[in-house]
Structure formats: structure tokens, C-alpha cells
User: Fold this.
Amino acid sequence: MPGFKIHISASTTLGIAYGGTAFAVYHQPLETSVLAAGLCAVSGMFPDFDSGPGRPLRESVTFGAAVVPMLLIDRFKHMGMSNDAMVLTGGLIYLAIRFGVAWILRHYSVHRGMFHSLPTALIFSELAFLLCSSGGLPVRFFEAGAVMLGFLSHLILDEIWSIEWKGLRPHLKYTFGTAFKFWGPCMWSNALTYVLMLATTVVVFNDPIWSNESAAAQEAHEIASSLMQHLNR
Assistant:
């Protein structure tokens, strides 16, 4: 199977292309484009959260622990939190992710389990949509798409590496189908994954950004118009 360097190189390349295209063609702000590129690059390591102690888990959890509190600043402000409260809450979130989440993943995840699946890709994308709350609807879709792209790049590469060529004849390894999947062999893991996917979906559709339906519809119309103008060039 592809190693850490192959996965991170692929997701980083895709992230640069994704963010660069948004900046050069669709005139997204530079900082938004760079953030999306970084999210895509890092999300290429997310499926290997279940690989046990190692570089993918260590690097991803450390990155998440540092970035998640910063992404939540806008929500903290809307909640009316003071600066001291925001700093304290951010620190607690850092500790929870850096040590609590990392400990759970090291001890209770199974490699090539449901972290290597399409439902989990949707969960992480929806979490990105919720965390990146400072922009409008197009920006949040854009950043959630970056996470989806990076995550899927990992799954696709795993499946490609599961095909072995013997001359001109392809041979499928036993790992084929264990990454790009909807469910795994463990019933409890499947159930937990789909419960989490349902929960994040419910939270997404109850996000305050949808409360102003006319504004959301206008933003969706602007996305469609921009795409059509680009295609007609």
C-alpha cells in the first residue's frame, strides 16, 4: 500500500491545484485559497487515523488540535464569549484533541476499518463545513470540498495499490475494496459511523447560515452563474 510520503504528496498536489484554481480562475481571496489547499493536503492523512501510533496520526492530530480552536473563533464571537473565555476554551479543545482524541484512536481504531470509507469522508467534510464558519455559503462549500478531495485521494490511492499487475493481467490483492467502501465487517463500527454521519448532517442543516433562505438561495445562484460563465468562455 502507498506510504505516508505518497499520500501526503498526492493530497498536497491536489490541494495546490484546488486552491490555485480558485484563486486564479474564480478570484477567491488568497488566504481562503491557501487555507483550502492546506485542508486538502492534511486531509489526505485522515484515513490513516486508524493506523495506530505513527506519523500520520501524530501529525494530523497535532495539526487538528492547533487549527480547530482557531477555526472556531468566529463561532465563539457569535456566542458572546470574552477574549479570556475564548482563549481558555481554545486551550481545552487543544488538550482534548491532542491527548483525548489521540488516545482513543490509538486504542480503539482498527486499520482499514471505517476510517477508510465514504461515510467517514462525508463526516470530515461536514465537520469542515461547520468549523469554517467565517465565510459565506460558497466559501464553506469550497473548504468542505477541499477536505473531501484530500480524503478521497487517500482512498483512491489505496485501491490503486491493491491492484497488482502480473504481466498484462491485473491481480486483486486481499486489500482491494477495503478503502473505498460504504461499510466494513464490524457491525458496531458501521453503526457508529452512520450515527455520526447522521448527527453531523443534522447539525449542518441546522446551522444558522441556512436561517436566511433568501440569502442562501442568492449565493447558490451566484455559484451557478459563475460556473456557467466560466464554461461558456
